[in-house]
Write a structure and sequence with these properties.
Helix 13 packs across helix 14. By secondary structure, this protein is of the alpha/beta class. The chain contains 23 helices and 33 strands. The protein is globular, with a radius of gyration of 26 Å. Helix content is about 30%, strand content about 20%.
Length: about 750
């Protein structure tokens, strides 16, 4: 996150020395630090609790050297000469050190400990600055060096990157490593087998029901991938053809993705929770040669008949002129036997009957770096899904690099990302990013609270997971269930935690850090999008002190800017619209079949920039704080209020387990704030509690942000991946109950009925 020195194991303390170097400071008074640095009566007392003498001297010296070389594009570290946000004078600075104390509501900074820093890939801000500066000033050289670590059948042309980011100068174009010939499946599998990792576990698979498991080594995974690739080729699938994959989190899902990549086919994974209509939309748009699915999946105690959904979608797509000749179906016998599966002879084929018969070797289809790798559909404001298109070379290099540094990956790590491969996180950080690094990945078929809320930590202990990457929604859900489901398990193997999908509120961050990570695991709170392909703003464990809830600083090669409504860049401490100037290797290249929409949505709002659609604040230390989607910003009497900010305040209340905030029409204010609040188990609804929640928001943000309405919510409408369906909440808040739309993708559709019943209480 921010400031620490590079030459010692005490990077955390050196970081602080860098920050306080402009202050009159008597180094002779410095002593070894205790567990926590708290406010004291004098500068010397505070200093003695935060730094060691030798670290401070080096920190001050390096701070002076670094500040002299800092340029405008490195403005996010210019604040090395200032104090942390809200710290005031040096005597008011609060800090904790990993593994030595709990992070409380008053702590501004959480530092890595000496042991972690010693082994970190980026152990200091000095190292980060060196790498970041080169990635911005010499992107071609920086990314060429990184790309050279992978296998290329033919090296790229002399021009590493070619781009036009400004719609005023013509069509938007992004190209990286154009002319380079490679294959991402080869780099994920063959390269690892050939380098001596043939017998290393590639995938541990945990089924829905506890008590069993499966695994594949890199050699076994390569063989399975080749068998499926050969089958697809036998069915006429060629380079550039689309394949739709509608599978749950079985090992066959990454196998299918990698098989497509091996033969140059373009996979489109559809989350196995989407309705038949949603699946049909995607089939009609990309016109696949084959659909790959399974007969059913069991999540928790619920059986979901996926094949029935596929059948209905294929009927619908045929009505729209798109027929699919092959539906390859995996028999997931733990959920449904094949004799209970509806079948269309001539189209439907059992995976187990055909794929294992094919050879376990398959020639690689070598592709250009700019050839398509996959399509991933994301929701659009018009209601029509957007087919985000990622290409091969730049995506490969970027996902591998972000995975390596953001999680401080080591070859001995066991990595578990709870995301589904139906989303971008599952593409970049379940399949491609980890396997490009030769990592061992845990894949879990079931629900994280089945058969009880301790299932996640049971899996962590079972496989000795060292890196755990999940969503704030799951963190808050597990918070609500109570610490006892966490503390009954060891979790001693954990060393790095991660957060993805939405801004994590500080209260959830602290619980994740204190309870799950035992106050010793840094949290990589990542900001990125389907469109970006990989992390854009993220902590690098060991490099910076962390601020609970902040995504910290940009990854290598990323130039974030905050602009006002007119598109003017805002410097220093500010809030506004988050944009990116200049491309990065993992950027998506277009929206499939609709480049005009691509430009209109992402590049025309602020010409010269990629517009993320997110709001963002930057504090005076340069830390970035994501405030949620711009369309989740509520304008109350002229005050622009991010819904995430209000939600964070509500969840900080000890009796609030989760909250979701939307805007609604207000005759006086224009928009009012409508808060759906889920309470901690056992806490009753009351007028006193309602007032207490509102007061919490008033105290933390201001009177202008106080919710106008509190809607008690036994649960919130979420997809099976944990995403809150705010569209439904907006309709309930505005009482447009006849416009709720499709609720079939919800994990529990009955929640909507409960919310409607409680609407006027």
């Amino acid at each position: 996150m921010k400031v620490a020195s590079s030459l010692s194991a005490g990077a955390a303390r050196e970081a602080l020395a860098v920050q306080i170097s402009p202050v009159v400071f008597d180094v002779s008074l410095v002593k070894s630090p205790p567990t926590v640095a708290r406010p004291s009566a004098s500068v010397s007392a505070s200093a003695s609790r935060l730094c060691r003498r030798r670290f401070c001297r080096r920190g001050i010296r390096m701070a002076n050297q670094t500040l002299k070389t800092t340029k405008n594009h490195l403005r996010h570290v210019d604040s090395m000469s200032t104090l942390p946000s809200r710290a005031g004078k040096i005597t008011g600075l609060n800090a904790v050190i990993l593994g030595e104390a709990l992070a409380s509501e008053e702590d501004d900074l959480v530092f890595p400990n000496d042991e972690f820093v010693r082994q970190a890939l980026v152990p200091s801000p000095k190292k980060y600055l060196e790498m970041y500066k080169r990635s911005i000033e010499d992107p071609a050289g920086f990314w060429s060096d990184v790309a050279s670590q992978f296998y290329w059948k033919r090296r790229w042309a002399e021009s590493v990157v070619s781009e036009n980011f400004d719609v005023r100068n013509g069509s938007v174009k992004i190209e990286w490593f154009k002319g380079g010939i490679t294959n991402i499946c080869y780099n994920c599998l063959d390269r690892n087998v050939e380098s001596g990792n043939a017998d290393k576990i590639a995938i541990y698979w945990e089924p829905n029901e506890p008590g069993s498991q499966d695994s594949l080594t890199y050699s076994q995974l390569l063989q399975r991938v080749c068998q499926l690739a050969n089958y697809l080729k036998d069915k006429g699938v060629r380079k550039g053809d689309a394949i739709v994959i509608y599978l749950p989190m079985l090992m066959e899902l990454p196998i299918a993705m990698l098989a497509c990549a091996r033969i140059g086919a373009v996979h489109s994974v559809v989350f196995a929770g989407f309705s038949a209509d949603s699946l049909a939309q995607r089939i009609v748009d990309c016109k696949p040669k084959v659909v790959i699915t399974c007969n059913a999946v069991k999540r928790g105690s619920k059986v979901i008949p996926l094949k029935d959904i596929v059948d209905a979608s294929l009927i619908e797509s045929a009505k729209n002129g798109v027929s699919v000749d092959v539906c390859l179906t995996y028999e997931n016998e733990s959920a449904m036997k094949r004799e209970s599966t509806k079948w269309q002879v001539g189209r439907d084929v059992w995976w187990q009957d055909v794929v294992p018969k094919y050879p376990t070797t398959c020639e690689v289809e070598w592709v250009d770096a700019e050839d398509p790798l996959f399509l991933l559909y994301t929701s659009g404001s018009t209601g029509k899904p957007k087919g985000v298109l990622h290409t091969t070379g730049g995506y490969m290099v970027y996902t591998a690099t972000t995975f390596k540094y953001a999680f401080d990956y080591k070859p001995s790590d066991i990595y578990w990302c709870t995301a589904d491969c139906g989303w971008i996180t599952g593409h970049s950080y379940v399949t491609y990013g980890p396997m490009l690094n030769g990592a061992t990945v845990v894949i879990f078929e079931g629900a994280p609270n089945y058969p009880d809320p301790g299932r996640s930590w049971d899996i962590v202990d079972k496989f000795k997971v060292t890196i755990f990457y999940t969503a704030p929604t799951l963190v808050r859900s597990l918070m609500r269930d109570g610490d006892e489901y966490v503390t009954r398990y060891s979790r001693k193997s954990l060393r790095v935690l991660g957060s993805v999908g939405e801004p994590i509120n500080p209260s959830a961050w602290r619980w994740f850090f204190n309870v799950v990570g035992d106050s010793r695991c840094p949290i990589s709170d990542t900001w990125w999008q389907t469109e970006t392909g990989g992390f854009m703003i993220t902590p690098l464990p060991g490099a910076w002190p962390q601020k609970p809830g902040s995504a910290t600083f940009p990854f290598f090669g990323v130039q974030p800017v905050i602009v006002d409504e007119k598109g003017a860049e805002i410097e220093g401490e500010c809030s506004g619209y988050l944009c990116v100037k200049s491309s990065w290797p993992g950027a998506f290249r277009t929206l499939y079949g609709d480049h005009e929409r691509y430009e209109t949505t992402y590049f025309k709002p602020f010409p010269g920039y990629y517009f993320s659609g997110d709001g963002c604040s930057r504090d005076k230390d340069g830390y970035y704080w994501l405030t949620g989607r711009v369309d989740d910003v509520i304008n109350v009497s002229g005050h622009r209020i991010g819904t995430a900010e209000v939600e964070s305040a509500l969840v900080s209340h000890p009796q609030c387990a989760e909250a979701a905030v939307v805007g609604f029409e207000h005759e006086v204010k224009g928009q009012g704030i409508y808060a759906f609040v889920t309470l901690v188990d056992g806490v009753p609804y009351s007028e006193e509690l309602r007032k207490s929640l509102i007061l919490t928001v008033r105290n933390q943000i201001g009177a202008f942000a106080a919710p106008d309405k509190i809607h008690w919510a036994p649960g919130l409408p979420k997809t099976r991946s944990g995403k809150i369906m705010r569209r439904i909440l907006r309709k309930i808040a505005s009482r447009q109950l006849d416009e709720l739309g499709d609720t079939s993708t919800l994990a529990d559709p009955s929640v909507v009925e409960q919310l409607i019943e409680l609407a006027d209480r």
